């Protein structure tokens, strides 16, 4: 990575000890089917972040002062399976350090690892999946760790809610829970979808955000753009409400496929990330201790999920 700290923030805010937030870059693009380049996503995102104003007008905060530690990138790419396992372990390592863990991809297969880690650490996890694609294939091109399979495991092991969907294979209907799926064509004509989706969420929510959920008019730099996507302010309105009404335990953002002729997508990704942090911490004083609540969940008789107590 080119920058030493996230967004070029002063070093005191970038130290692991005091940071409440950890950012793990995963520059992986092993299974993309069409346009390659998601491996360049984290660098482009970090570049854009370093050129962004750090005061958020809407919340009146400078969330970077909560501390953002830029972790070493996960670069394992021997196989899709080994990449997923490396992401799983890195994510878990920082959850155990009581951090608010965020991950920037890379293509969407990385989320199999992030979701697995959060699901092991939190009881009754909701996965909020914001994407143009259903990503519910059990196996694709010989592996269950393909980007087209990103939330199959989550559909079996968590409360999965899908938002923005407008592209899928007919076979995915056998896996999809349509009561918890918000299709883009319905969202366009129904303004109650935000409340309905939030009503279906348990308290602990992990957000996996594929940037192709956005309309290509504002997010062209992604591997598989689909017309008819989300716009900026409706997305922020929804996210702000999710952060206000539920305990968002972490999130990932994936599928930025940068184009040197088109920088606005990189900037949108940078801004989206910062907005999500701002919503998470808007009511928390900078010197308050952060408690990611995973210890509490331990006491809620969730012991079986903690048996693999791997140390780092
Ligand atoms: Mn997608």
Describe the structure concisely.
By secondary structure, the chain is of the alpha/beta class. The chain is 31% helix and 15% strand. The protein binds manganese (II) ion.
Description:
By secondary structure, the chain is of the alpha/beta class. The protein has a single domain (6-288), classed as 3-Layer(aba) Sandwich (Arginase, Chain A), CATH 3.40.800. The chain contains 10 helices and 8 strands. The chain has an 8-stranded parallel β-sheet, with helices on both faces. The longest helix has 18 residues, at 264-281. The radius of gyration is 18 Å and the shape is globular.
As a percent range, the share of helical residues equals 25-40%
**Helical segment count:** 10
Question: What is the quaternary state of this protein?
Answer: single chain
User: In angstroms, what separates the terminal alpha carbons?
Assistant: 23 Å
Outline the secondary-structure elements:
Blueprint: H1 11-14, E1 21-26, H2 41-49, E2 68-70, H3 80-96, E3 100-105, H4 110-121, E4 125-130, H5 152-157, E5 159-165, E6 181-183, H6 184-187, H7 193-199, E7 204-210, H8 232-245, E8 247-254, H9 264-281, H10 294-299
Parallel strand pairs: 1-2, 1-3, 3-8, 4-5, 4-7, 5-6, 7-8
The structure holds manganese (II) ion.
The site of manganese (II) ion has 7 residues, from loops.
């Amino acid at each position: 990575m080119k920058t030493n700290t996230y967004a070029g923030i002063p070093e005191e805010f970038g130290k692991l000890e005091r940071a409440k937030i950890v950012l793990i870059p995963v520059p992986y693009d092993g299974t993309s089917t069409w346009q390659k380049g998601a491996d360049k996503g984290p660098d482009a995102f970090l570049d854009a972040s370093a050129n962004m104003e750090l005061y958020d007008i809407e919340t009146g905060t400078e969330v970077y002062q909560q501390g953002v530690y830029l972790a070493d990138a996960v670069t394992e790419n021997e196989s899709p399976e080994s990449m997923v396992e490396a992401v799983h372990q890195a994510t878990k390592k920082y959850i155990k350090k009581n951090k608010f863990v965020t991950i920037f991809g890379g293509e969407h297969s990385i989320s199999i690892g992030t979701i697995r880690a959060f699901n092991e650490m939190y009881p009754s996890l909701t996965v909020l999946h914001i994407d143009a694609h259903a990503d519910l294939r059990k196996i694709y091109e010989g592996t269950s760790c393909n980007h087209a399979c990103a939330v199959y495991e989550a559909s079996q092991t968590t409360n999965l809610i899908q938002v923005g969907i407008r592209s899928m294979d007919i076979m995915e209907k056998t896996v999809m829970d349509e009561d918890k799926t918000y299709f883009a064509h319905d969202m366009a004509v129904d303004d109650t979808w935000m409340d309905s989706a939030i009503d279906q969420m348990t308290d602990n929510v992990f957000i996996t955000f594929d940037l192709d959920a956005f309309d290509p008019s504002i997010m062209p730099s992604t591997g598989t753009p689909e017309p008819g996507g989300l716009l900026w302010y409706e997305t922020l309105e929804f996210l702000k409400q999710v952060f206000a009404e539920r305990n968002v335990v972490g999130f990932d953002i994936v599928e930025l496929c940068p184009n040197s002729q088109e920088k606005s997508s990189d900037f949108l990704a940078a801004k989206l990330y910062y907005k999500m942090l701002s919503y998470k911490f808007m009511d928390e004083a900078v010197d308050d201790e952060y408690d990611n609540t995973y210890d509490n969940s331990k006491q809620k008789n969730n012991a079986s999920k903690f048996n693999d107590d791997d140390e780092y």
